[in-house]
Write a structure and sequence with these properties.
It is built from 12 helices and 15 strands. Strand 7, helix 6 and strand 8 form a beta-alpha-beta unit. Helix 7 packs parallel to helix 9. NADP nicotinamide-adenine-dinucleotide phosphate binds next to helix 1 and helix 12.
């Protein structure tokens, strides 16, 4: 059994991850931690767990985590995770970081978009971006896995095969994505309070969202040249799920059949990516509470523009589920263990 610790277990991704790890056949939760001063019974945070589960979320102690865990999951706010990651890597642990602190390879870009100095820049080039279906071979050997962001996951999976096959014009990409409110985490923010979010639908951080450079970095690697995108996030009044509607110009030889074929070929062996048949499109209901990413495509006659829809659950494939998938790949467990 692999001994795991979850830091930030009281938050949305930490609680979701704890739930998945409890059901995982090859791991033992050896520690769940909080910044708070008193221990919290896990059942207070996760009321759905069995009465038999006696786990507590305990005040954070570096030494306790170092002693008890081989794998450390960081479910901490970005800018808070990098110090912990550096310490646990120095102590010889494997770290899966759900925050954004090690996703960007360029320190200057991180500091521009996240507004703080990076305290562990020596790990930026060593971290492996944990987009499981694309970087599996590198993940197998990684000691620091930067779990992808919730918004970047669906569009990256949808666009990488099309950029690699040169079926779309790289600099024509527009991503409109809507996220459920849990995407903003548990902390109190005016915009995500019930009266603000309920019965509303609004764009935010237009051209300014911190996931923009992460998506551009991934797509640039696939295209083999710098890619710039337009990314417009929206807040959708549902608890969970992200549906991204992506627009791009196709190249003259590209047809809808070729685009679907490229996606199907890329993900034939991938247990969690499902390509919809022609005329069918993803919906949040199909992916909520699952680790699936569903993708649908349509090429518009006349304009030659392709519309690609990608849907995930932000807390599962966009966070905790993808983290478990990364752990499975890294430690040689079946990729679907604890996720099916
Ligand atoms: N929500 C999503 O859909 C999603 C998806 C992908 C990635 N992520 C990333 O995953 C990380 C965790 O996100 P989340 O949504 O789980 O956040 P969250 O619900 O706000 O939980 C974060 C937890 O971290 C702990 N924490 C430690 N230091 C903190 C500090 N200085 N300020 C605030 N909290 C602190 C808190 O627990 P205590 O108060 O008990 O210490 C808190 O419960 C973030 O980096 C986020 O960007 C989130």
């Amino acid at each position: 059994m692999l001994n795991c610790a979850v830091l930030g277990a009281t938050g949305y991704t930490g609680a979701e991850l704890t739930k998945l790890l409890l059901a995982h056949p090859h791991v033992r939760i050896s520690l769940l931690t909080t910044r708070q001063e008193k221990s919290i019974p896990l059942r207070e945070i996760l009321p759905s767990v069995s009465k038999k589960v006696k786990l507590e979320i305990t005040p954070y102690s570096f030494d306790a985590v170092k002693k008890k865990a081989d794998l450390v999951f960081l479910c901490l706010p970005h800018t808070e995770a990098m110090t912990a990651a550096e310490q646990f890597l120095a102590a010889g642990k494997v770290v899966i970081d759900l925050s954004a602190d090690f996703r960007l390879r360029d320190k200057k870009i991180y500091e521009k978009w996240y507004g703080v100095n990076h305290v562990a820049p020596q790990y930026l080039s060593k971290a492996i971006y944990g987009l499981c279906e694309v970087y599996k071979e590198k993940i197998k050997k990684a000691d620091l896995i930067a779990n992808p962001g919730c918004y970047p996951t669906g569009p990256s999976l949808a666009l990488i095969p099309l950029l690699k096959a040169k079926l779309i014009a790289p600099n024509s990409i527009i991503i409109n994505a809507a996220s459920g409110v849990s995407g903003a985490g548990k902390k109190l923010v005016a915009a995500t309070q019930f009266c603000e979010a309920s019965e509303n639908y609004s764009a935010y951080k237009v051209n300014k969202h911190q996931h923009t450079p992460e998506i551009e970095q991934t797509l640039s690697a696939a295209a083999g040249k710098p890619v710039k995108i337009t990314f417009v996030p929206h807040l959708l009044p549902v608890n969970r799920g992200i549906l991204a509607t992506i627009y791009a110009d196709t190249v003259p030889k590209a047809t809808e059949a070729k685009i679907r074929k490229a996606l199907e070929a890329a993900y034939r062996q991938a247990p969690f990516v499902r390509i919809k048949p022609a005329g069918q499109y993803p919906s949040l209901k199909d992916v909520q509470y699952t680790n699936f990413c569903d993708i649908g495509v349509s090429v518009q006659e006349g304009t030659g523009r392709v519309v690609i829809i990608a849907a995930i659950d932000n807390l599962v494939k966009g966070a905790a589920g993808q983290a478990v998938q990364n752990m499975n790949i890294r430690f040689g467990f079946p990729e679907e263990a604890g996720l099916s």
